[in-house]
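Worked Example 4.2. Consider the chain below.
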Amino acid sequence: MSQPTDQPQRRFESSGGARSAPSDGPVGKGMASHPASDIDSQPVVQLSDLTVVRDGATVLDQISLTVRRGEALALLGANGTGKSTLIMALLGLIPHASGRIALFGQPPGPKADWAAIGYVPQASKAGAGVPTSALEVVRAGLVTGRWPFPPHQAKARATHALEQVGMADQAHRPVGQLSGGQRQRVLIARALARQPKLLVLDEPTAGLDHQTQHHLVATLLDQPDITLMVVLHDLGEFCHVLTRSITLSEGKILADQVLQPAPTDHPHPPKEPPDLHHHPAPPPRRLGPDGLVHLDLGRRRAR
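Applying the procedure from the previous section yields the following structure tokens:
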């Protein structure tokens, strides 16, 4: 198994222990199959010699990777290195040629705890012409495959998720009238509404401006029990939350590094510090005839 050289700081792990499953019923492909204690004792993700072949080409070549509870993992690499393929194979969206996949100790199938997983695919034009409102899209993400109706409190959970991504004021607007970045935020809200233990984001910052990316990361920092896997081209705002990075190259793991999340108190310092006027300005500097910088300490020249 691929493991980082040092134990990463578990940014998302709270001191209160494991969170129980949502009280308003199962969500997703199937029923939760394990008690919370069993789920939390297992690695969240475990890949063993995973190989994926697409259109006759080997996209992933014997990838081994373990992700434990509370980690915030970035998948990095150039286009075509297999980042999105790894995510889709992990979630059972595409077949794999060989190797083993486990989610909370179970293969991606009927016994997997899909209710504990939130997934945001790459941004696309999907839904651009759909008259469904943003709230309905998020609420629909809570419908289980075994029961065609949303669970109890689905509207409240969907509304709260839209608030988390700053889209509450657009809740009743058709998604077809939203911009690409706004639709991406709705999909992120859809995943957050599931109250997932594992959140998988595939290039979530595409179409999002800097301020929205900052808001998204702040939202993730407020989710203490989430394990995060995110596909990125660069760390950007996610530098404040990531604890580990995997770099892929030609279908293999090139690097597995521990990351120290950047301070989050003031990730963007104000243009003018509040106590600026409490400190005297530094003395002016001048270039002397010797080519060195000298401080002008206010000595007056004799006239």
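Residues 76 and 234 are 7 Å apart (CA to CA). The helical segments are 36-41, 83-90, 134-140, 154-164, 180-192, 210-221. Compare this with Example 4.1 before moving on.
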